[in-house]
Structure formats: structure tokens, C-alpha cells
Amino acid sequence: MATRSNQYDFIGAGGIIRDHNGDWLSGLSMNLGVGQVINDEARRMLSGLKLASNLNSRKLEVESDSAIVAKLLIEGCPISHPLDSIINSCRHLINGFDEVQIRHIFRECKCTADALAKGSLSHDYDIVSFDAPPPHAASAFTDDLCDLPRARRVRTRP
Fold it and tell me: Torsions phi, psi of 147, nearest 5?
């Protein structure tokens, strides 16, 4: 999940790793500075996969609110693609797990990751890891666990 601060145009990213019951294993928050959201989604995915690998996870369900990143992870991308290096690094890590499912989900399904991304804009350029839900993401995590329904904004054409 990446978020953009409208005031300064900074980008932050957040992600969580949960066990098979949905319980928190780890989370991350990254202040990425100024850049392209799609690039930062791919960088967040790489950081999340590294974290899952470090936790010795064997089976993963990878969810991304970026349909483009999810598709590139599944299908790969040509060497000429601007995300080639990051996507290939992700795919290399994915090959180290026993089982991986990758899917696109809507942003509204990832409130915890969104809260972590928004919170990242208040810290320095770096990755911050969380062993438990931080206060600014705790209620979103509980809502995600309970699968609370959320309204989805859909753009309509005039």
C-alpha cells in the first residue's frame, strides 16, 4: 500500500504480515520521499517479501492494491520495463517459498496497510518495523480482522 501526501507530494508505504489466523506477525512502514507510486508499490512489495523471508515463512498469500504490480509479479516483465530490477528481485524471493498466491485486492480491503503508509510520512526516510500493531494502525487492524464492510469510491464518467 502506498499513499501520497497532497501537501508535500511525499510517498509512504506500509504492509503487514499475518499468520494463517490473521494474527499480526510483523509490519512495516516506509517513508519513500518523492517519486512514482507504482515504483514505490513495487519497492514495498520487495521489502515485505524480504521480511516474510526473514520470518522463515513458507506459505504466503500476497495481496497488492496495485493490479499492475500483482500482474508483473505473476507474469514477470521484459528487461526493458522500468520495474524489471525490482520485480525480478521479488520473483527471486518468491521462488524461495514453498507456496505463494498473489492477488490484487482493492485498497478498501487493506486499511491496516493504509494506516501504516500514512503513518510513515511522519518519520524519516527509512523502513520502520513493528512487532505489534502501532497505535495509529491498531483500530484498522481490528477492523480488518473482523472483515468490516467498507464503502468503495468508484469514479464515474460524465
Answer: 55, 45
- The residue with cell 506459505 is 59
59-64 and 99-104 beta bridge pairing: parallel
Burial (0-12, 13-18, 19+ Cβ within 10 Å), 153? exposed
Q: What is the pLDDT of residue 117?
A: 75
Average pLDDT over residues 9-14: 76
Mean pLDDT computed over 50-68: 88
Q: Grid coordinates representing 110?
A: 487493506
Report CA torsion sign: 107, 105, 135, 14. Answer: negative
| C-alpha cell at position 42 | 513495487
- Mean per-residue pLDDT over the chain, rounded: 80
Per-residue pLDDT tens digits for 138-155: 887 777 777 665 555 556
Cell 464518467 sits on residue: 157
Pairing of strands 11-18, 2-4: antiparallel
